[in-house]
Each structure stands twice: as structure tokens, then as C-alpha cells.
């Protein structure tokens, strides 16, 4: 067999192994080792595996992953999410469908200090959904708003997906974080407009009862200030330090984790058992991400050795389909994969093949990364996988609320993401202007 044929068989074999239920990281390592062995020999495969591990895991940059993960988990247990929702609820209560819009913007702010969509879905399913249903919103709509707006956790920096993409594309993590701000705000705006449109045109979908006669919990100016200060302080430390040039991404993660720890301790939300549990969970998430990145690095090098990316670039770019035809096929493929597997796994499988093609097409790789993250995040809302949907169902545990109801509630936000994706394709500067300053 030629190296090109071996590369195609390796991609096909990986898809079969994933379908059969093999863990993606192990499947990647297995087909990559076999592919390099067939193209060269076992000794080269062993050396390449060692080099991939050394090159991908020794970077100082990888300290940022556990630090931001720990910060997100500490913020989650210290009720910062509830405080964020309370602040926006108080500010937007008189706006039509104001609690829905408050949920979107609370998610946007919470995303800026967590970076994990599932954390947002867990927190706001317990905070926003009960409050919205108490004020007459339907459960389907309330859970749909939480599921839809939870995707902001992976777009607005700091973002775990942005870190993974930056490593695979060999781009700056700081620039990728900057690139996520404009698209994140765009998504929040499109989600808010979607809520307003549904509330004005399809009231039966939004409201369970026509009139809201339930009193809002009242907060004094001092209470609002007390709730807002920890949020603003963390944002100032992490984002202000990062974008002001005072801190690199790793230092910003360390400062954020230390700040979140102080908040949790001051609020007495961190008994020893909880702290130990969070440390273990941080380690588990970090190790799983780094193992997948190691496997993806080896997979990418095997593909480069086989010539598959070069052949695909020639196939797409020299044919009538052209660069933007490739982009459309790529984004559709990612959305379809999102129905089956998780976000990080999609990126690790697809990017080693797609990035060389995108580079040959002349695409800005930061812009390409933003489009990738938005398309990947749609998978959190689409059946049958829909991780955010299942997270909300697990957190609420209401027998009268089916998974199908949550999927139907989230569907308008999937359409909103399609609109946002089209805008980002049409106007690349939304993604790149901050990153290129």
C-alpha cells in the first residue's frame, strides 16, 4: 500500500473504532502507531510517539488548563453564578421576557470566569429555571434558554476549546481568547433578539401563564453591589490582566484560581472534603484533555507523513468547489459530528485533517478557529448527544420534563447560532480585529 492509502485507511479505521465504542484517545494512538509502522517501521513509530508526547505535553502553556478548570469549579461551588443571575434579573426585570435575557447575559458574564459550558448549564439550570417557571415561563422555554446560552461558556474567554484549538493550530492562546470576545457578544445579542422575537410572536411557547403576578425578590443597591463585586473583581484580575498585557494566559489562570479560592473561602463554601473533590476533578479533566491532545498530535503527524492533508487540499482547492465550498462542507461535518460525540473529540479528530487545507486555502486560522468553536458548540444542543441538554435534565430531575422538551426548547437557539455563524463568515473582522491589534 502507498502512504496515502495507509492514511485513508487510518482515518476510516479510527471512525470504525469510535463507532464500536473505543475511547477516542486510545483509538487515535492505536491507528497512528500502526499507520507510521506501515509507512516506515516500528522503530520510527516509537520515536515519533515519544517526540509527540514530549513536544505536546512539555509546554509551559499547558499549565493554563488545570488553572482555568480549577477556577471554574471553585466559582461554581461559591454561588457566583446565582449572584450573577440576581444582578441581571434586577436590571432587566421590566424588559419583555427579561428573565430570559437576564439568563443570557448572566451566562455571558459567568462564561468569562469559567470557560466550561457544562458548568454554566449546571449552575443556571438550578438558578434560572426555577425562577423563570415561578414567573410563568414554560419549562420548555426556560430550559431551552439555559441550554442555548450555556454555549457562551466555550466562546467567551477563557475557553477550554480555544486553548485546545490554539495548541493544535499553533496559534497564540491570548490571541484566540481575544478573538472570542466579539463573536461571544454577537451570540449573546442574537440569543437576546431570538428571545424577544419568540416573546412577541410566539407567546404560547414562552409563557405557561399569560400574566406574571408573582413578586420579584427585591435587592437593595447595597445587596446588588455585594453580589456584583466578586464577579467584577475576578473579571478584572483575569481579563484585565490578560488583555492589559500584565499577565500571560498561565499567570492569568493562576491569578483567577487564587481569586476564586479566596471568594470560596470567604463564603465558607469550601469544606476540606469539597476542596479535595474539586482538586481530584480538576486533575481528571486536565489529564483527559492532555491525553487527547497527545493522541491528536501523534495522529496529525501520521497524517502529514501519509500525505492525506496535502491530497485533500489539492482535491478541494483545485476543484470547482473552491475554498468556501470546503468551508461549508467542513462546518456541516462538524455540526453532524456534534450529534454523536463531544466537542473536544470532534476538534481532535477533524482539525489535523482540516487545518492544512484551511492554511492552503489562505484562511485566517484565528477566524477559522472561531467558526470551528461555534459549529462544535452546536453539538451541545443537537440530538442525540446534546451534552448540555442531558446536563440540564440531570440537574433538574423533574419527571414532568422530558429530554425531548429541552431539545425542542433549545432548537430556536440552534437556528440563532446558524445565523451568527453566517454573520461571522460574512464579516471575519468580528473575530479578528481584537486579536490582530
TrEMBL record:
Record membrane topology: Multi-pass membrane protein
Assigned keywords, A-Z: Cell inner membrane, Cell membrane, Membrane, Transmembrane, Transmembrane helix, Transport
A Gene Ontology term for the protein's cellular component: plasma membrane
GO molecular function: transmembrane transporter activity
Subcellular location: Cell inner membrane
Pfam family, one: DctM
NCBIfam families cross-referenced by the UniProt entry: dctM
UniProt protein name: TRAP transporter large permease protein
Organism name: Pseudooceanicola marinus
Lineage, highest ranks first: Bacteria, Pseudomonadati, Pseudomonadota, Alphaproteobacteria, Rhodobacterales
